[in-house]
# Entry
Amino acid sequence: MKLHDLQPNPGARKDKKRVGRGISAGQGKTAGRGTKGQGARQGGSVSKYFEGGNLPLVRKLPFKRGFTNLRKIHYVEVSLDKLESRFVKNGVVTPETLVSAQVMKDLSKPVVVLGGGELTKPLTVKVHRVTAAAKAAIEKAGGTVEIVPLVEAEEAGA
# Structure
């Protein structure tokens, strides 16, 4: 077998319909376009938006911009003030201890520590995210920061 011998299987390719070639060809006279009107004319097609002169559905819908990102991660925000008031010196801050201290309701969402307020006692903070200001304040007070991977929060919530 050589390249010039190659051809498609029988029935795999279909001849194109030759319209407007006389009455005996089956698609003569109007060539499948019907009689008169916009569809019979050359270049006569309407856009998908056009609905015969009615107000199009797209214009009936409310005007909204943008979209909703389904993969956005919603964090539970915890400020340094809450850590100062709810935890003892040398305490360990984890999502579980935050729930028991009633800082957050459940473990379904990951935790971010924000730098609002002051921290005077050393704490070991093990959360999913910490802002730069919060990390600096925790380390200045003599504590440590450990970042927990996000996968654990998704498993705990699921």
